[in-house]
Amino acid sequence: MGSSSSSPADGPTQLEDKYYPEWIKNPENIKDLTGKVALITGVSTSSGLGFYATKALALKGAQCVITVRNVEKGEAVKADLEAKLQEDGVKPKIAVMKMDNCDFASIRSFTDEFKKQYDRLDIVCNNAGVMGLDVQMTKDGYDIQIQTNHLSHFLMTARLWPLMKATAEKYGDVTITQVSSGASHKGGPTVDTANLNNPHPSHGFLLYLAPFVLGGSTGHWARYGQSKLANVLFAQELQRRIAAAGLQDKMKSTACHPGLAATNLQITTQKGGGMKDGAGYQKNGQSCADGSLPLVMAVAHPTQCEGGGYYGPHESQKGYPIKTKNENPLAYDEKVAKDLWEASEKAVGEDFQL
Ligand SMILES: NC(=O)c1ccc[n+]([C@@H]2O[C@H](COP(=O)([O-])OP(=O)(O)OC[C@H]3O[C@@H](n4cnc5c(N)ncnc54)[C@H](OP(=O)(O)O)[C@@H]3O)[C@@H](O)[C@H]2O)c1
User: Fold this and answer.
1) Chain centre distance of CA 107
2) CB within 8 A of 162, min separation 6: which ones?
3) Which of 123, 272, 298, 303 could crosslink 256 through cysteines, CB 3.0-4.6 Å?
């Protein structure tokens, strides 16, 4: 099914920023975040979406905590962020904390430590992710894509929820977003809530074509699509539960996607055998910085950040950020979302009560 691969490039393709530098400086796009604490997962390189989202949030005054599985990489990113923000006259507060999304014990240690160190949590960006990798079971017994991209973020959010809720009750404004992907709708993926480890979840006809366009196998992409649809379902169900708890004026749950952004994601996928030419494919997309803007909009736009909202580039693969709609009807299916919530609670071994 897969196509032959060329040697993976060392890093992402360099594409010009069309929107980011101006967009983040316009006060109509990002509200003042002075005093707020923001948590962004998966910020281990200066070429990832998390890097540019953190930079934008810190520029507006947020104290940012970035999570990484390799603290040395995180400290290098922190130094780079500080240097870049200081060029803009901002002295940011950035902290690096360890969290491995392939290990539920690591999520538990991280959340315990976070609660010891911080007395508020205003913004959460669940961004860490992998794409199109072979089936690999973590030590918790879950496939690497569903655990990294969804289950660990579900567990982290559940354990930090009391702090987020207390922050909302005290300051009145907490926002959480899940970084999904166009893969949540393209090709018609589904979520197998009865077996999150299904190596080949069912999908629409177009997903059969993914290997011809991208490389790898249909299974690589069906499992990625599943994990990214899970992100949107989680965001939607969380918003429904926020409303049911009467918290909708103080807390918002959103989801977003970056279009096609030139980051290490495609390079890592190619190295893992899931893609034939990651750097070449990136040339159809946009710069990493531009790709980070829907993520920033989803948590910090002064007027357009709405509970249940979905944000992405205006031309789908690239463009300026807009509020949009996921094209997969399953993304808004309440039964699937509820089943996924219950399957996720079972998988992580903890209830998520609001
Ligand atoms: N770039 C795109 O075109 C695109 C399109 C759609 C969606 N997305 C989504 O955007 C998000 C960010 O990806 P990106 O494009 O910025 O790629 P990236 O630069 O590769 O960033 C992914 C981040 O996730 C981290 N990560 C992976 N596995 C982890 C684990 N087990 N524990 C902790 N951290 C882990 C990586 O850290 P390590 O360095 O330790 O691996 C890295 O910091 C992902 O959720 C991805 O699915 C990206």
Assistant:
1) 16
2) none
3) 298
Q: Please state, in angstroms and rounded to a whole number, the distance separating the CA atoms of residues 288 and 177.
A: 18
CA of 267 to the centre of ligand 1 (A): 11
Give the tokens for residue 296.
């920033």
Looking only at the bridges linking them, the beta strands covering 310-313 and 321-324 are: antiparallel
The dihedral built from the CA positions of residue 68, 21, 269 and 126, taken in this order, carries a sign that is: positive
Predicted pLDDT of residue 10: 83
Helices (H) and strands (E) in the chain, counts: 13, 8
Amino acid code (one letter) for 224: Y
- Active-site residue identified among 36, 165, 186, 228: 228
Q: What is the pLDDT of residues 181-199, one digit of tens each?
A: 999 999 999 999 999 999 9
Q: What is the CA(227)–ligand 1 centre distance, in A?
A: 13
Three-state DSSP class for 236? helix
Kindly state the tokens that stand for 272: 């893992």
In what order do the strands lie in the sheet containing 251-256?
Answer: 94-98, 63-68, 37-41, 123-126, 174-179, 251-256, 310-313, 321-324
CATH fourth-level superfamily of 20-348: NAD(P)-binding Rossmann-like Domain (3.40.50.720)
Show me where the domains of the chain are located.
Answer: 20-348
CA distance 306 to 251: 9
Specify the pLDDT at position 1: 35
Q: Counting beta carbons within 10 angstroms of the beta carbon of residue 203, is it exposed (0 to 12), middle (13 to 18) or buried (19 or more)? A: buried
Q: Which atom of ligand 1 is nearest to the CA of 43?
A: 43
Structure tokens at 86: 């200081």
In whole angstroms, give the CA distance from residue 206 to residue 169: 45
What phi and psi values does residue 303 have, to the nearest 5 degrees? -125, -25
pLDDT one-digit tens code per residue, 241-269? 999 999 999 999 999 999 999 999 999 99
Residue ranges in the chain whose pLDDT is less than 50? 1-5
Contact at 8 Å (CB) between 220 and 1? no
Of 175, 178, 183, nearest in space to 310 by CA: 178
- Token pair recorded at residue 141: 């017994």
C-beta separation of 298 from 305 below 8 A: yes
